[in-house]
Each structure stands twice: as structure tokens, then as C-alpha cells.
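Researcher: We plan to redesign the surface later, but first we want a full-length starting point. C-alpha cells attached.
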């Protein structure tokens, strides 16, 4: 039985915002919901006519966790690296390190990587840094992949496995991947164009968290591993009185990494090509077609595409939609409020409905945008700022 506040905390964490643990609520001073607040923060301009695009992405969820085993196809060694759920960006460097060790274990120096999303490009980069000759074969390059339609926040255990269904040893593997990734992301902080940066995050509540029902039949409870790495990111702390800049009863504040994916993708692609990596556009319709490649070792980073290519029905789509507002350079904070997450990326302010249960988007493969969802998210955020008194000029 999962406690309601644990689920709320988990969902907030999925948005990279940290949760309201039961301990955090105990003794917390409340103020009436709806009180006006003197805003000390620049406002998000949440208006429908400032939406520049609406995109949909499918998280490649596997109850057992990502597929990272090694298989033989004809005379090829295939290292799998797909199915990273809602954590593909966050775990990418750690997963790349694991796949690289397996790919080079037999002494091969020529390696093919299938896929040019978050996993394919980081895996190809780590292989290249290890001295391998690497060619990426992919239907789409990064900017056209599902990875380019992700939220872009540090969310290393978002929909990464189902509670009680992950393979033995996966929590330890997850922790190793998570720590490697986190360390590697720091190398991209501070670069021109801010491919990766830290931003403040708030988790806002109008009232005490409502108890959530357990997931409906057929929807797993997603595993949570974040407690294993509490030491690497700042803790969320309660902010009260003048320190709470929002007109809500309860606010917690922390900080997290954000990935400004447009610039980050550009840096990753440029670095890989400058280091001598190659990219070829190619579509594979069945595993057997991989035997046509010249490389003896192949890393399969096809993400949700593996469901069709490898006929792997264990890959379940978890739909998520992002509505992009015109960027505002003055914004350096994100937040989670009434099931909407807001992230102030340099390439657009990312608005996303995250739903009120773990069933939201589960097994939903619709990739067409739902504009009602966008209107609801915009109205929710506009409503929050409507209750705030702007700063004096
Ligand atoms: C709404 C949403 C928000 C998210 N937010 C975050 C977040 O904030 N942080 C985070 O860490 N993760 C997030 N994720 C998860 C993340 O986006 C995924 O885990 C990640 O994109 C998976 O990357 P990938 O490289 O495995 O797959 P993809 O990005 O799908 O790339 C697959 C590659 O394989 C190629 N390919 C596939 N099939 C074939 C084929 N048959 N032949 C040739 N090429 C093929 C594709 O062309 C592409 O190049 C989010 C996901 C969603 C849906």
C-alpha cells in the first residue's frame, strides 16, 4: 500500500521538484489558500498566444528496467541500451558507460550505434572517447528524435522500472549510472549557451496534499530509487512567510539541473563529429538487417523504436505533452503547481500537465497534440500569477 503523500512526493520528483514527505508537512505553518503575494520573482507570461509549439513524446517504459543485455544476431554482437522510461537524458552518460564496457569487452574497435537520441549520441561519444571508430546509424538525428521532445530536467528515476519487477541488482546499477551521469553533466555547466544549468525549483501546494488512490489495475507503481542519491542534489526545504514568493499555503524550494536541449544537442553533435564520429541516415526494419553492417559490434539505442524493431512488447509508451512558451531570459526558476510543471528552459518555457496519478499517459501512444491539455496548463499557471501582486517597477 502506497501512502498518498508518498505518491505526491514521487510525482513532484518526476517533475524534478522534490516532494512533500510526511515529515516535511508535520508542524508546517499554513496560510489561507489564495492569499495575494508580493512577487519577488519575475512572472511566467502564461498566455495562449505565446505558445510557439506543442509536442508529444512517448517514454519507453519497461517494468523490468532498461534493456542492457548482450545478444548475438548472426555474426554480430548486439549490446542493448534502450527502455529508459522518463529518465533517458538523466541516466544517459551512466548507461553509455555501461554499454561501452560491454561493446569493447571482446576487443572490437569498430562499433555501430543504432539511434541518435539521448542514449545513442552519448553512447557513441563515450565509445569514441574510449578510442573506438564509431558510426551512428539512425532514422532521425537528435533534433528530430523523441529525446528532443523531453522536459529537460534531472529526473533519474522517472518511470525507470516498476516496483517489485526490476531485475535483481538493478537498484545498484541504477545508482552507478545515476552518479556517473550527474558527474558528467557538471562538465557541461558553465559553457557558452548554457547547454546544462542549475535552476531553482519550487513545489507549490494550495492546501494539504490529497491522498491519491493506488494505480488502477494494469498500471504499475513506478519504482523510486532517488533516496539512494540524496547526497548529490540540494534538498528541498520549506519556505514560509516572506521567503514564500507564491500565493500558496505551502512552498518548498530546491535546485536541480535542467537540460537546454536545443543547445545541448548542438554541443553533443558537434563534439561527436569533431572527434571523428560519423552519422549515417538509415532505417532498419528487422534485427536481421543489422548483419549488413560492417561493424562486428552494434549498440542498440532505438528507444521506443525498439518496440517495433525488436518486437519488444515489454516497451510500454507513457505519453507526455509539452507546450512551449516563448523563452524569458529573466526566469531562473521552475515549479510544480496543481499537476502542471513549468521549466524555464533557454529554448522555451516548458509547460507540462503531469496528471494526478501514475496512470497519466500510461500505455497511451497518441503522438498528436491535445490542445485542451495545453489550454488547461496555461490557465492553471495564469491563474497562479493572477493572484500575485507584481513587483514595483
Ligand atoms: C514528455 C516527456 C518528458 C521527458 N522528460 C525527461 C526529462 O526531463 N529528463 C529525462 O532524463 N528524461 C525525460 N524523458 C525521457 C526521455 O525523453 C527518454 O528516456 C529518452 O528520450 C530516450 O532516448 P533514446 O535515445 O533511447 O530514444 P529516442 O530519443 O527515441 O531515439 C531513438 C533513436 O533511434 C532511432 N531509431 C529508432 N528505431 C529505428 C529503426 N528501426 N531504424 C533506425 N533508427 C531507429 C531514432 O531515429 C532515434 O535516432 C521524457 C520523456 C517524455 C515523453
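Model: Full-length starting sequence:
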Amino acid at each position: 500500500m502506497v501512502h498518498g503523500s508518498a505518491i505526491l512526493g514521487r510525482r513532484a520528483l518526476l517533475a524534478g521538484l522534490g516532494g512533500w514527505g510526511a515529515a516535511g508537512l508535520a508542524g508546517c505553518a499554513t496560510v489561507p489558500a489564495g492569499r495575494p503575494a508580493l512577487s519577488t520573482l519575475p512572472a511566467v507570461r502564461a498566455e495562449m498566444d505565446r505558445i510557439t509549439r506543442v509536442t508529444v513524446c512517448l517514454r519507453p517504459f519497461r517494468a523490468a528496467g532498461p534493456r542492457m543485455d548482450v545478444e548475438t544476431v548472426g555474426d554480430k554482437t548486439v549490446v542493448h541500451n534502450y527502455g529508459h522510461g522518463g529518465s533517458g537524458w538523466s541516466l544517459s552518460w551512466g548507461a553509455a558507460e555501461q554499454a561501452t564496457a560491454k561493446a569493447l569487452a571482446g576487443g572490437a574497435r569498430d562499433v555501430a550505434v543504432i539511434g541518435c537520441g539521448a542514449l545513442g549520441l552519448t553512447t557513441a561519444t563515450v565509445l569514441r572517447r574510449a578510442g573506438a571508430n564509431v558510426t551512428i546509424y539512425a532514422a532521425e538525428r537528435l533534433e528530430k528524435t523523441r529525446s528532443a521532445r523531453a522536459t529537460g530536467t534531472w529526473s533519474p528515476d522517472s518511470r525507470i522500472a516498476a516496483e517489485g519487477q526490476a531485475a535483481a541488482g538493478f537498484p545498484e546499477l541504477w545508482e552507478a549510472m545515476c552518479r556517473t551521469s550527474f558527474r558528467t553533466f557538471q562538465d557541461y555547466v558553465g559553457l557558452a549557451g548554457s547547454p546544462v544549468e542549475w535552476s531553482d525549483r519550487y513545489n507549490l501546494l494550495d492546501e494539504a496534499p490529497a491522498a491519491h488512490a493506488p494505480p488502477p489495475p494494469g498500471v504499475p507503481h513506478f519504482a523510486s530509487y532517488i533516496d539512494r542519491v540524496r547526497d548529490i542534489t540540494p534538498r528541498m526545504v520549506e519556505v514560509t512567510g516572506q521567503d514564500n514568493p507564491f500565493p500558496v499555503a505551502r512552498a518548498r524550494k530546491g535546485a536541480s539541473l535542467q537540460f537546454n536541449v536545443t543547445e545541448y544537442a548542438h554541443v553533443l553533435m558537434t563534439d561527436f563529429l569533431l572527434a571523428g564520429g560519423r552519422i549515417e541516415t538509415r532505417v532498419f526494419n528487422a534485427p536481421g538487417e543489422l548483419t549488413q553492417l560492417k561493424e562486428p559490434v552494434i549498440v542498440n539505442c532505438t528507444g521506443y523504436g525498439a518496440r517495433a524493431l525488436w518486437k519488444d512488447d515489454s516497451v510500454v509508451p507513457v505519453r507526455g505533452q509539452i507546450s512551449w512558451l516563448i523563452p524569458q531570459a529573466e526566469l531562473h526558476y521552475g515549479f510544480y503547481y496543481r499537476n502542471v510543471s513549468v521549466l524555464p528552459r533557454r529554448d522555451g518555457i516548458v509547460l507540462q500537465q503531469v496528471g494526478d496519478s501514475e496512470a497519466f499517459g500510461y500505455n497511451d501512444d497518441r503522438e498528436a497534440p491535445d490542445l485542451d491539455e495545453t489550454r488547461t496548463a496555461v490557465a492553471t499557471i495564469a491563474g497562479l500569477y493572477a493572484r500575485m501582486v507584481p513587483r514595483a517597477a
